[in-house]
# Entry
Amino acid sequence: MELYGNRFSLHLLCLLLEITCYTCTTNVTDNVIIMLMDDMGWGDLGVFGNPAKETPHLDRLAAEGVTLTDFYTANPLCSPSRAALLTGRLPIRNGFYTTNAHARNAYTPQVIVGGIQSNEILLPQLLQKAGYESKIVGKWHLGHQTQYLPTNHGFNSWFGSPNCHFGPYNNKDVPNIPVYRDKEMVGRYYEEFKINKESGVSNLTQIYIQEAVDFISKHSKSGKPFFLYWAPDATHGPVYASPSFIGKSQRGRYGDAVMELDEGVGIIINALKKYKLEKNTFVFFTSDNGAALVDKSQGGSNGPFLCGKETTFEGGMREPAIVWWPGKIRQAGSVSHQVSTVMDLFSTALDIAGVSPPVDRVIDGRSLVRVLTEGTTEDRPVYYYRGNELMAVRFQQYKAHLWTWSNGWDEIKMGIDFCPGEVVTNMTQHELQNHTAQPLLFHLGRDPGEKYRIGFEAAEYSDVMQPLQRMIAEHRSKLTPGQPQLNMCDVSVQNWTPRGCEKMQKCLPRPASNPVKCIWPH
# Structure
């Protein structure tokens, strides 16, 4: 009996240990990877209907995950969109807008004085509470002065640049953009980090891929959860790709860049599988804004949607979005029509990490965890801002335009057109038009291209606009705009002396300060 009792106790102990171990493994905090492309359009991926079918890795990601067809950015331009993602707040709240002119897009070029404010709480800062280590790879674009850089806002490590890869510059009137390793520069674009604008050749995407893989490898051994913010910029003009991809796409140089990024996604996913992290890693792929249609040889496709980057039409605001979360999503290969935004990534990541969002401010993002794991949906509005103006609102399938504009005649005369070949009366004109007294209403299910407005006299119009107007009024009544950060420019704040320039003997003479109001033409 004693022997039997000991065996029973041993069996019970083993069972308890097994349950404990199972509990430990199933309660591991999931890693978070956000892949944010630059100027990539809704129609650039095979899974979203691009006829070239040159994105096999992303298409497979969708087949194994969830495709979100109604996913939106928070602004049709890079910097405000990225600020919204990392704060979970509309740019009008977090300060990434301008009041220098009405309804103007603004961003963070080298001359900008402002950047992400210290009172804004970014996603990596909150994830630190759950033990996450965070890394950004690629473009930051939330301010380039030291106090604005990512390692001062919650990111443990960084490889990339604070600005777009514009250039080359002469380092006298304008300095070339620095590339950073964590807190110090390790070179400049067009110097140590080559981009051949004529041939389109650059190895930057390969470097960004390797940075991501090395970070995943490191954390496969540490056991700590991680947040990887992968933000390559090859599809932003001037578009580039590595030599093995140049000339590979039937879509030209832009297609070459897309194909290389697609392969990069595949390599990163394979790294997760190699290190057995695929079962506890949440991956979200999207873009910062719609494809830039200004230069068709270096711009993407927005599919059936009107216009592109810089506009609050669907082509500028609706983005490709794919979620890959093996074992967690309700059904692999499913499609969700849940209306959602880039700000939801903030709330979703916090939900996954078990971290509560700040309660002392308005958070515009909502967690998508139940949408992805249970297939639930909810009706919610989307607010389309251009600078300091609410341009449009979507609720369910209806979208009401309060203001419309593409860009001005002065730019059109210079060949800059945000809606090339697309003319829709009272929509794509080159003067800002006010429709607040009688908004233009479209049904995006029947008319995704926003070409056929619902008549003012139609019963459908009044039935829809009455609740929409109440929604708009409530939004405005509760809105407290943040201090605008994109108003002032100064040549002296450009990247003359980035931290680390002394070690490389790459510091440049700084001109005298001359602060002026930035000019934002569109």
